[in-house]
Write a structure and sequence with these properties.
Number of helices: 9
Strand order of the largest sheet: 4-3-7-6-5
Strand content: 15-25%
Largest sheet: 5 strands, antiparallel
Enzyme class: transferase
Protein name: histidine kinase
Order of helices and strands: HEEEEEEEHHHHHEHEEHHEE
GO molecular function: kinase activity
CATH architecture of the largest domain: 2-Layer Sandwich
InterPro entries: HATPase_C_sf (IPR036890), HATPase_dom (IPR003594), His_kinase_dom (IPR005467), HisK_dim/P_dom (IPR003661), HisK_dim/P_sf (IPR036097), Sig_transdc_His_kin-like_C (IPR004358), TCS_sensor_his_kinase (IPR050428)
Catalytic activity: ATP + protein L-histidine = ADP + protein N-phospho-L-histidine
Structural class: alpha+beta
Low-confidence stretches: 396-406, 446-453
CATH topology of the largest domain: Beta-Lactamase
Number of strands: 12
Length: about 450
């Protein structure tokens, strides 16, 4: 799961949780508000009940009942009751029921609010007040109460939540959309960071730079420091490899001189062995130099394979093996591979020397562009090799015959892999075809095929 999706889901869940808690809180606040309003209204009705008390022939009675007609409708949900020692007066709405007021002690004028069971088991909100009657009404304590069905309060709260729910849903959508926009803006530098790293890898940039948000600046700085350290280490490795190679060349040259001296005194077999060993060591040194140079090649390096091929053919035609062959070069001018020219010459030279060694009469150099890669093939018309031997020849010091050192193909493979390509051996029917698959330099386009022979 992407970081953006994780944050978006976490934000949406947080919004839903917050709005859910807010809805519960609002429902509680609205319920408390409705109950306070109902209590205030019942207090007015209780005042009306107390103000309407009178003493008649049958005792205490309510001469002026409250105006609300629900007090006269049986089980309407609105009730009043007057309780005096020895007598009980109640509204017609109570019918044959009575409010079961708790036996608590109230001071004169004190008001209590109760939750009681009413007619048919209904939940009632009861407001009770204790008063002392004046002497004209006979004196003595009286408990007056007004009650209403609490289900009306529950229904009001449910109606409030039903009205509020669509707005909460719209608010959740709006907050989620705002969170997504915030994530898109906030994570945009991460996309830029990825693009910059890709540019570094492809050679379109050299450093991350410092134009990053404060949170990403340490990452960019560490990457730049890592690149600088890698370049410095690579340069040191190149220098050490070059020093080692140049240090070995003098002893190798001395060995060649010693071989000439032995051959002069008739020790031909020993001289040949020393020369073969010295040549193998020299090729190994050259290979390590090529590898160190390729490892530190410039990110914007490019080489023209046609020009390199022409130069190699010109050199090989002056050798005994190359002079007897017909060289066919069909590489178009203007193509460029993402490789240093010296590295390309080293790789193509190794393959061309191998082809010249085994060809009967002809060597063909050709290319084929496949998207952003080039297939550069050097094929001979020699005896060829079995397909099962191709992988073996790619290993260091592996040879198809007793000539050479067996390093040419390995050097070409190393250079191709360092450039992001590969070396593939195949059957040329007849002969052997060695193909270098190399990335094209940026902006390179294939041109019409040209022939040089």
């Amino acid at each position: 799961m992407s970081l953006r999706l994780r944050l978006a889901l976490a934000g949406a869940l947080a919004i839903l949780l917050a709005l859910g808690l807010a809805a519960l809180g609002l429902a509680q606040l609205f319920g408390a508000h409705v109950e306070r309003r109902a209590t205030a209204e019942m207090s007015v009705q209780l005042d009306q009940v107390i103000a309407g008390l009178d003493r008649g022939p049958e005792g205490l009675d309510l001469a002026r009942p409250p105006a609300d007609p629900r007090f006269s409708v049986p089980y309407s949900g609105l009730y009043w009751q007057i309780e005096e020692v020895g007598s009980l007066r109640r509204s017609r709405s109570l019918w044959d029921a009575a409010l079961d007021l708790p036996a608590d002690t109230l001071g004169d004028g004190a008001v209590h609010v109760h939750r009681l069971a009413g007619p048919d088991g209904a939940d009632l909100l009861v407001l009770e007040r204790s008063i002392t009657l004046p002497s004209r009404l006979g004196g003595g304590p009286v408990r007056a109460a007004v009650a209403m069905d609490a289900s009306e309060l529950v229904a009001a709260r449910r109606a409030f939540m039903a009205d509020l729910s669509p707005y909460l849903a719209l608010l959740a959508l709006a907050l989620s959309a705002a969170g997504w926009v915030q994530l898109s803006i906030g994570l945009r530098p991460l996309r830029s960071l990825g693009a910059r790293i890709s540019a570094l890898r492809e050679g379109r940039a050299e450093r991350m730079g410092g134009h990053w948000p404060v949170e990403l600046r340490p990452v960019a700085t560490e990457i730049d420091d890592l690149l600088a350290a890698r370049e410095a280490e690579t340069e040191r490795a190149r220098t050490r490899a070059a020093d080692l190679a140049h240090g070995l060349k003098t002893p190798l040259q001395a060995l060649m001189g010693e071989a000439d001296r032995l051959r002069g005194v008739g020790a031909t077999e020993q001289a040949d062995g020393i020369e073969e060993t010295a040549r193998a060591m020299r090729r190994t040194v050259d290979r390590e130099l090529a590898r160190s140079r390729t490892a530190a090649r410039a990110v914007d390096a490019q080489a023209d394979p046609a020009r390199v091929a022409n130069g190699l053919i010109a050199v090989l035609r002056r050798t005994p093996e190359g002079a007897r062959l017909h060289w066919l070069q069909t590489i178009p001018e203007g193509l460029a591979v993402a490789l240093d020219e010296a590295d390309l010459a080293e790789a193509m030279g190794a393959l061309a020397e191998n082809a010249a060694r085994h060809a009967r009469s002809k060597v063909v150099m050709s290319v084929r562009v496949q998207g952003d890669r080039m297939q550069l093939t050097i094929a001979d018309d020699g005896a060829g090799i079995a397909q099962t031997d191709c992988d073996r020849l790619m290993r260091r010091h592996a040879r198809a015959d007793e000539t050479g050192t067996g390093l040419g193909l390995a050097i070409a493979a190393d250079i191709a892999e360092a450039a992001g390509g590969t070396l593939v051996l195949g059957d040329a029917a007849p002969g052997l075809a060695a193909s270098l698959y190399l990335p094209l330099a940026r902006g390179t386009q294939a041109r019409p095929m040209e022939r040089h022979d």
